[in-house]
Amino acid sequence: MIKVRVEFLGGLDVVFSKQRVHDLTIDAEELSMQGLIDYIVQNLITNKNDVDVFLEDDNIRPGIITLINDTDWELEGEMEYEVCDGDVISFTSTLHGG
């Protein structure tokens, strides 16, 4: 089991039932960021039409800053990163409209 906190900030919470913080317990021994993203899409996005707000071409949409324990995910290996028990993964939209 892997416990991870996932945060959706900068307005992204609207896609996730208006809940900014999700404390997840995922039944897995190993979990990559790709696996976590798949889990998020399958289990946390209530309206499947909103998947395009979060993903583009099976990757995090440009304009969404992704941090793993407050470190840019690009420095951690992006989709290849192995999620660890206790990690905090934050997704922050920089596109607010107006």
From TrEMBL:
Domain of life of the source: Eukaryota
Listed InterPro entries: Beta-grasp_dom_sf (IPR012675), Mopterin_synth/thiamin_S_b (IPR016155), Urm1 (IPR015221)
Gene Ontology MF term list: protein homodimerization activity; protein tag activity; sulfur carrier activity
Post-translational modification: C-terminal thiocarboxylation occurs in 2 steps, it is first acyl-adenylated (-COAMP) via the hesA/moeB/thiF part of UBA4, then thiocarboxylated (-COSH) via the rhodanese domain of UBA4.
Pfam family, one: Urm1
Biological role stated in the UniProt entry: Acts as a sulfur carrier required for 2-thiolation of mcm(5)S(2)U at tRNA wobble positions of cytosolic tRNA(Lys), tRNA(Glu) and tRNA(Gln). Serves as sulfur donor in tRNA 2-thiolation reaction by being thiocarboxylated (-COSH) at its C-terminus by the MOCS3 homolog UBA4. The sulfur is then transferred to tRNA to form 2-thiolation of mcm(5)S(2)U. Prior mcm(5) tRNA modification by the elongator complex is required for 2-thiolation. Also acts as a ubiquitin-like protein (UBL) that is covalently conjugated via an isopeptide bond to lysine residues of target proteins such as AHP1.
Protein name: Ubiquitin-related modifier 1
Native species: Kazachstania africana (strain ATCC 22294 / BCRC 22015 / CBS 2517 / CECT 1963 / NBRC 1671 / NRRL Y-8276)
